Amino acid sequence: MLRLFEQHHVRKVKSLNGSWNFKKTGEATKEYTMIVPSCWEQHPDFSSFRGEAEYKKEIFITEKTAGLRLDFKGISHTADVYFDNQKVAHHYNAYTPFSVVIPNVDLGSHELRVVVDNSFNENSALHIPNDYYSYGGITRGVSMELIPNVFIERIEFTPQYRDHIWEANIKVFLKNIQQLPTTVTVQIDIAGKVFTRKDLNINESTSQVVEFNERFFDIESWSPTNPHLYLLKSHLISDENVIDDLIERVGFREVEIRGNKVWINAEEIFLKGFNRHEDYGEFGCAIPLQLMVHDLDIMQDLGANSVRTCHYPNDELFLDLCDERGIMVWEENHARGLSLAEMKNQNFKKQCENCNREMVENHYNHPSIIIWGILNECASETEEGREMYKNQYDQIRSMDQSRPLTSATCRHFTDICLDLPDIVSFNMYTGWYQDMSVEERHNQELNWIHKEGGEGKPIIVSEFGAGGIYGYRDRARSKWSEERQVDILTSNLQIYLNDPRIMGVFIWQFADCRITEENNWFAARPRSYNNKGIVDEYRRPKMVYSAVKEYFNKV
Length: 555
Hints:
There is one protein chain. By secondary structure, this protein is of the alpha+beta class. 18% of the residues lie in helices and 36% in strands. It has 3 domains: 12-145, Jelly Rolls (Sandwich); 150-250, Sandwich (Immunoglobulin-like); 269-552, TIM Barrel (Alpha-Beta Barrel), CATH 3.20.20. It has helices at residues 289-301, 316-325, 340-343, 348-363, 383-399, 438-454, 482-496, 544-552; strands at 12-15, 18-24, 32-36, 52-61, 65-72, 75-76, 78-83, 86-92, 98-105, 108-117, 137-138, 142-147, 150-162, 165-176, 182-190, 193-202, 207-216, 230-238, 241-250, 255-258, 261-264, 267-269, 271-275, 306-308, 328-332, 369-373, 405-409, 423-427, 459-463, 504-507, 513-514, 529-530. Strands 23-24-25-26-27-28-29-30 form an 8-stranded parallel beta barrel. It is globular.
């Protein structure tokens, strides 16, 4: 399963999830069967394997086709794709989807081979030893699609509420893969309204955007308390025949900043949520749908209304669930805790640009996503770092002006980028790393933010928390005990949830997650896990669960 709804009624689509042949690169003798999607760490022989391996699968094409589109939702972290031994794609980044179109594919059997590398090396600027684990494998779903010479690449839906009427800008992105121009018609069907653009001339081997601006009456808005969704159906017509289609699921909602608050439609919101890594004890980052549902059940039981996808774009299945449940999402690009030297890696700029583009283009239509985030805890205290922050903010704003932007900082009293985002966010671990009064430290931080470019902006406490090892109890309430975790979390919640200058809080973190052992991360992380979860890696609740639930349900 790639999405929670059907995206095509006309285009022929087949899932490639299931059993693939698998082996380490260069080892011809032993071949395994590996399930896609999954992390190869699930297999006993690869529980800590870091390196290069290949997946192989025979696929059957039922008819000669103008184009075969292969859609990969996530491969960790570098992939080279071969079709009948011809290299057809290269992609970097575990957390963003990519696709490749192969023209003029004959009927019959074909070999699909994917070489995957999760190693840390100089070519990888974003996947580095870190406070979470870079798993290996084809970790999200894969499908193949038979497409015509001209097909629908994607759709962007941007709603606006004006004078008590919903308006929407709808962009349909078309691509012609043949060497001849062609004439087509685009038809849109949404909320009982059908509109058409006829006689569109698409030049050979080019892409073209078809734009609609429409007004809608009697619309039910999407909101956290009423997450109403509509199917946006697009059809591509040639010679009176429907040759292609693409369906998206959208919501009519508008995100606005008014002073130091964030509003959805006509309602001021307060974010209370969790930072959540895609990590589960038995499944790594390839979390099955049932367990995604379980995570959201737990979050909502705790009283949360939002989630931050630290520190990378999430699986679209999880975002689909957030759309359905009204869970507000801060989705973040992939870059965590990079020093200036690491940001000056020769591949950093390009890899970030690709991640930002793929994140925004692929996830644009999710109404649950209300904030884009970038560059968590990177070198925002330097002039060179500031330029990199600015470039990424500018890039995302050029693609989407309908959502506010932010970045979480830990460069306390030295950050020189606070004037750049729409929302100022800071990570603070008072009581865990800083042994002082929460109220005193909090006031110091806010006074500094107001003086250094954040005055009048919304402010989010993007991370706060404490470690607690599941099952470790100590009446002396020592660090790493569940009792100490309760003490620290509650002292922070008392301050943050009662400060009108704050418009949102995200506890670090929802569940314990595995970390990389390289670069001595293990030295400060018992069990080689980040143990600050409200639940452990198997979602077993710690003592702090009840305390968080009590505080969140008061707001």
